[in-house]
Amino acid sequence: MQEFLVEITTRVPEGTPAEEVDRRRAAEAVRARELAAAGRLARLWRPVGEPRSIGVWRAADEPELRAEVLGSLPMWPWMTAVVTALEPHPNDPGAGARS
Fold first, then answer.
1. Whose CA is closest to 41, among 88, 4, 75, 14?
2. Is 49 left (phi over 0), alpha (psi -120 to 50) or beta?
3. How many CB atoms lie within 10 A of CB 57?
4. How far apart are CA 39 and CA 33, in angstroms?
5. Torsion angle (degrees, nearest 10) of CA 25, 28, 29, 35
6. Is 56:4 a contact under the CB 8 Å cutoff?
7. What is the distance between the alpha carbons of residues 61 and 29, in angstroms, rounded to a whole number?
């Protein structure tokens, strides 16, 4: 499976009822746990003070990542994503831990 660095920015459409936002956020947390358990979401961070997240995600390729993995997130319609395919670096200090 290919790894991807994904930067996601979520913008809730103006006028969206708070109940809808709360419902989707709760469903998003559930789906993120499911994707992590399935090995699709490896790590996730939120930069301090910013409305975006940065994560390492896994899929066969970018179309699968966007359609089946990220596209399954309840808040996906409100998200924009910058996807960067990753490959191992020969000097990665964590590579030995994964071998």
1. 4
2. left
3. 23
4. 10
5. -170
6. yes
7. 24
Among 7, 38, 96, which residue's Cα sits nearest to residue 30?
38
**Residue ranges of the domains in the chain?**
21-39+64-78
Q: Determine contact, residues 58/2, Cβ cutoff 8 Å.
A: yes
pTM over 0.85: yes
Q: Give per-residue pLDDT as tens, 7-65.
A: 999 999 999 999 999 999 999 999 999 999 999 999 999 999 998 999 999 999 999 99
Q: Are strands 2-10 and 52-59 parallel, antiparallel or unpaired?
A: antiparallel
10, β-bridge pairs: 79
The CB-side HSE value for 46 (13 A sphere, CA atoms) comes to: 7
